[in-house]
């Protein structure tokens, strides 16, 4: 037996190793791409879930706000509502036409933007209200500690009352929620 290999055998062995290396590199690249796509889909799903949660809270609580016969805002239903006691922050902003916004009720205030931004958001919600339907608006920004938050707002209105009421709900944005952000 000869230990000498022919040039054709050497070329075939080299081609086999090159093809093995190529398949390994392609597989590794595919795993990285799939991991990136999975992470992007997960991040989008978490952000959508956060937005849906605050919108659910704000729309549910907007329908619970009432006023009495003396035109006094009755927030007892909102304060006692389970939606207003969870992990979602709530601000009920009230103002008379031409006056600045006042916060009639707050829950987990630190998860919401500062007072100036709350007034701006409430004005934007009011500006987009048509007086017939509850039109929720979504915003993203930072809370008073600088964390990224998702906020939704909805107007509350009655035909027999001049005061303007906007309810805002917020939660930490999905961008900052959870350590499982990176899959690869």
Please give the CATH class.
Answer: Alpha Beta
- The helix/strand class is alpha+beta
Number of strands: 7
Helix-strand string: HEEHEEHEEE
Gross morphology is: rod-shaped
**Any idea what the CATH architecture is?**
2-Layer Sandwich
Give the biggest beta sheet: 5 strands, antiparallel
Approximate strand percentage: 15-25%
Within the largest sheet, what's the order of strands?
4-3-7-6-5
Count of the separate structural domains = 1
Intertermini distance: 50 Å
List segments where confidence is low: pLDDT < 50 over at least 5 consecutive residues: 176-184
User: What's the number of helices?
Assistant: 3
Structural commentary:
This is Two-component sensor histidine kinase. It comes from Nocardia seriolae. The protein has 184 residues and is an alpha+beta fold. The protein has one domain (44-176): Beta-Lactamase, CATH 3.30.450. 40% of the residues lie in helices and 22% in strands. The chain has 3 helices and 7 strands; from the N terminus they run H-E-E-H-E-E-H-E-E-E. A 5-stranded antiparallel β-sheet has the order 4-3-7-6-5. Strand 6 (148-156) and strand 7 (164-172) form a beta hairpin. The protein is rod-shaped and about 105 Å long. The chain starts with 6 loop residues before the first helix and ends in a 12-residue tail after the last strand. 26% of the residues are buried. Residues 176-184 have low confidence and may be disordered.
């Amino acid at each position: 037996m000869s230990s000498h290999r022919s040039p054709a055998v050497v070329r075939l062995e080299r081609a086999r190793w090159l093809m093995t290396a190529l398949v390994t590199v392609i597989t590794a690249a595919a795993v990285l791409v799939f991991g990136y796509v999975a992470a992007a889909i997960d991040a989008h799903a978490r952000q959508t879930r956060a937005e849906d949660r605050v919108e659910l809270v704000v729309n549910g609580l907007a329908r619970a706000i009432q006023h009495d016969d003396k035109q006094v805002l009755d927030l007892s239903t909102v304060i006692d509502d389970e939606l207003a006691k969870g992990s979602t922050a709530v601000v009920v902003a009230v103002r008379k036409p031409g006056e600045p916004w006042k916060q009639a009720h707050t829950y987990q205030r630190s998860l919401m933007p500062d007072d100036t931004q709350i007034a701006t958001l409430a004005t934007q919600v009011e500006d987009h209200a048509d007086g017939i339907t509850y039109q929720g608006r979504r915003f993203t920004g930072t809370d008073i500690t600088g964390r990224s938050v998702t906020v939704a707002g909805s107007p509350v209105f009655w035909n027999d009352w001049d005061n303007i009421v906007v309810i805002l709900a917020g939660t930490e944005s999905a961008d900052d929620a959870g350590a499982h952000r990176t899959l690869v």
